Structures are given as structure tokens and as C-alpha cells.
TrEMBL record:
Organism: Pelotomaculum schinkii
The Radical SAM core domain, residue ranges: 5-202
Keyword S-adenosyl-L-methionine: yes
Protein name as it appears in the record: Molybdenum cofactor biosynthesis protein A
PROSITE patterns: RADICAL_SAM
Superkingdom classification of source: Bacteria
Amino acid sequence: MTITYELGDSLYINITNRCTNNCLFCIRNISDGVGSGTNLWLEQEPSIDEVIEDIQRRDIAKYKEFVFCGFGEPMMRAYDIIEICKKLKEKYCLPIRINTNGHANLICGKDITPQLQGLVDAVSISMNAGDRYEYQALCRSKYGEAAFEAMLDFAVNCKEHIPKVVMTVVNSISGENIRNCTELAQSIGAEFRVRYHVKKSA
């Protein structure tokens, strides 16, 4: 079972395969893994202690950051992430990033961002569309069209508690959609990045 894996000079932490979205472009549709994690499908979700033990087996000096990102939405386990972050901050000096779809507040039923302050250094939020209709068509969230506004609200709240907030889109969406997303991210005060959409090879 792959709990941690390497991608570039970052150590990624894979803690769940559950997700609130079923995105058309999701890498899980075409691959079993990414980076050094050749199979990110979990037999079961690792406990907090199992995550910490797996991290401690690594040569942490090799990495520039910890990243919560695997084959699922990490904030499905928001409270476990908070506890893991506390332990990591006690032992290591590396920054911590969360790659997320921005549904944490819907998942938790409240604004979770104040509890991330001082623990999470960066959050990368998958935006992927400029309005709720395009978003639902592309991301197929279990929350329906409410997911888009919740994602934007999460980003706004993150700006108050987390030093770096980045909104991202896949490069397979239209140029007009990318422009709309750029403007939305700028209105929030977040950074913006277009990420590469991995496609199934012929």
C-alpha cells in the first residue's frame, strides 16, 4: 500500500481514495499511479500513526515540501490532516501544501480554514471552470452546482489563514474558460496556474 510517494523534489502523502468529484479529466481514469507511486489505490485508509511512520522511513532531507495529494480528495480526512500536520511541524522544518478540490467546508459542515492556520503553508485548489454550470459538467460533484460557490468561498477563507493560495485549471478547457478562471482567481487575490492534463496514450 503506497502512503507516500515522490514527485519531483516533493514528498506526496496519499491518505484516501474517496472524492466528492468525479472529474472527466481525473488521472485515476487512465492510470493507477503517478510519480514514484505506481499504485495509489489503497487497500484501506492509513491511520495517522501509519502515515507518520511511513514518512519517517523517508530521507526527509531530500525534499522541499510535504504535499497532501494522492488518488482522492485529501480533505475528506480534514481532521486527520490537521493532526498529521501538527506532528510534522513538531519534527520537521518543511512547508506543507494541500492539493484539494476546495470542498473541505462542505465535507466538514463548517469553515475549517482557521484550523489550518500555522500548519498549512500553501493550498492548491482545483478550480477548472469559470461558472457553476461548466464546473458541474466537468467535475460532476456529488454536491451538484453548489460545489462551485463552495470552492470559491473556501479559497476566500484560505486567503485569511494560509500564506499561499493557488487556483488551478487543466489546460484542456477552452481559452475563454481559462480567461474567466484567471479573472476569478485575481478577484479573490489568489495566484493562478494552468496545469497539464494527462491524457491516455493511444
